[in-house]
Amino acid sequence: MCGDRPVMEFEYSRSGGYALRAGTIHDPARVPVGMWVDSKPEPTGESINRWWRSRGIPATRDGLGAVLAMSGIATTADLLDRCLGLSLSDRYWVRPIDRDDLEWSNINFFHNAFDERLGRSLFQGGSSHIGDVNTPDVTSAGDLPKRWIIQPDGTRSLLKAGRTGQEPDNEVIASRVARLLGIGHVEYRIGRAQGRRVSVCDEMLGDDEEIIPGGQIMSLFREGPNAERKEIWLDACERLGADRGIEEGAVDDFLFLDFLLRDTDRHYNNFGLIRNVDTLAVRPAPIFDSGESLWNGMDPDLMDNTDYKAKPFWVDDWGDRENAFWQFDLIRDWDRWDLSLLDEVPGIIHDQLATNRRIAPAVTDAITGTMKERIGMIRERRDAATAPLLANTLRFGDEPSETGRPR
């Protein structure tokens, strides 16, 4: 089901926890992209299982093992079965064939209350008092402790902790820098939950929207060399109806912001498309999940601006080679940002990290000092990237101004 719309049928083994085979397809246009096979909305039992498993809490989630052991629940698949796959990321859910009484309006998490005890248990790393498992915490991705809450005004908000203690502040810094540069982003703020410093962001989707993670869009990828990864991504988005120019601008935005802040974790599930479930129109998702930035967890003596392994566009098959500079040079439109504003970034970083008393001043100073050097390096790479364009323009008779740009 997608909201109230029947999408497809499939046979499922409850005892085994897996789909046996696909059945009737009622709405091919709304078959989850993660189920597509050979770039077509023609799911198989295997592709259904892949999509279904991707909806559950990953086995690597901090604290998950203790919660399962203390609650008597065997696997995350059992949790998924109990919550019908409902999520706060999209409108998909599974209605058992003998439960015609279930209606989207009465069970979705966007407009109905949910039990927050499981989320609290996952956050603190173990409790036998998990309450009703029909909650969006069952379908939240990622390894770090997180949980959904309902604010007094009804807003759904995601709380997320970290491992080093710096991640929540990195999220806030990334949103402030993105706002400074005019880059679409999710707003983050600092909060407290169960004695921990957390980042807080509100639900990014409207009532008629879903997010399609890049990890699912990969099912539409054409074959091609690693050097074409950006173009392969744009081709797949275009197949889903995205405007190629707008999507390329969004990709340039996260390539720029991630390099500026030295984000090392922009994997394919940390960006994607937002789709209107009624019209199927798509747009780029705003930038979110930037916690692994700013030399997170590194010794100050090791912080530098040398090359490193970055995501998502690898230069090899497994991401073993350093590729950050290569990926940064994939940016095409340098006119998207006013680089004079970068002088404000070290101050933004310093002021935010200074609010976290667990981060030593020496660490903050090392980060801001290395960032100042990084900004100079970025401007140099911008100049090198745009110099051929300027030279080509001047060949047609334009005279340079005092700034070196054509009049």
Automatic annotation (TrEMBL):
Q: Which Gene3D superfamilies match?
A: 1.10.1070.20
Where does the source fall among the domains of life?
Bacteria
What's the protein called, per UniProt?
HipA-like C-terminal domain protein
Its source organism is Bifidobacterium saguini DSM 23967
